[in-house]
Amino acid sequence: MGRSNHKSAQILVPTYQHSFSLDLNQSALLVIDMQNAFCNLEGFCGSELKADLSAVRTMIPRLQRMVAWAREHGLLIIYTRESHLPDLSDVTPSKKQRYINAGYPIGSPSKMGRFLIRGEPGTQLIKELQPLETELQIDKPAQSVFVSTNLEIILRQRHINHLLFTGVTTECCVLGSYRQASDLGFYCLLLEDCCAALTPGEHQAAIDVLLGENGALGWVTSSDKLLAV
Questions:
Q1: 122, 113 contact by CB (below 8 A)
Q2: Among the options 33, 45, 172, 195, which is catalytic?
C-alpha cells in the first residue's frame, strides 16, 4: 500500500520565493470542490447567485492538464466535494449561519438540486474532471478537507507527505485545506493558475496570504513552472 520502497523521483520546482523539493513517489494532487454547484454555469453559483464564473471556467483546461500530468507520473489524485447529509445533521450551527449570511443557505433549491446536499447533481464533479476508478473522491462537510474525513489517515498509510493544491475557491476551501495540511506537517504547493475564485481580488488575496512573511506560510507556483521541470 505504501510507496516507501520506490526509488526517489525528486524534482526541484521554482516558486515565487523558495524552491519546492517534490518527490513524485510521495506526492498527491488535490482537486478541491470542482463540483457543478460551483463550476457549472447551470449550478447554484451560476444560476442562483449569478456569480461570474469566467475565471473558474478559464482555469479548467489548465487543471485538466495537471490531472493528465499527475496520472502520467503515478501521483495519487484526490477529488473533494463539499456536501452534507440530506437532513443537514452534519451542518454545524456556525456554518449554517455563515452560509445564510452569505446568501446561499445549505439545502436551498436550484436547477441542479438542493445546494450542497450529497447525491444531488450540484454536488457531483463537473464532466470535464471525471475520476478514474483508482482515484479517490472524498465528501467533506467543512471547508477544509481534513475535517471529519479520513484523508490524513489515507495519506499517512501511503507515505504521502507532499501535496499539490488546485480547485475552488482559492480563498475558501483551497486555502482552508492548505493551511490545515501545513499544520499537520505536509509540504504544500499551491498551483495558482489551477485555482480560481469568484472575483480576481479574492483569488489574489489568498495568494498574498501564502506569500506573506517571506514563505513562512507556504509555497506558491504555476502549473507552467512545474510542468517545465
A1: yes
A2: 33
pLDDT band, very low/low/confident/very high, at 4 (cuts 50, 70, 90): very low
* pLDDT for residue 57: 98
Contacts of 123 (CB under 8 A, 6+ apart): 35, 36, 37, 81, 82, 83, 113, 116, 117, 139
CATH topology of domain 20-83+126-199: Rossmann fold (3.40.50)
Label residue 8 by pLDDT band (50, 70, 90).
Answer: low
| Active-site choice (39, 45, 140, 172) | 140
- For this structure, is 225 an active site residue? no
Pick the catalytic residue from 39, 45, 173, 194.
Answer: 173
Query: If 0-12 CB within 10 Å is exposed, 13-18 middle and 19+ buried, where does residue 188 land?
Result: buried
Sign of CA dihedral 95, 97, 52, 206: negative
Q: Quote the pTM value.
A: 0.95
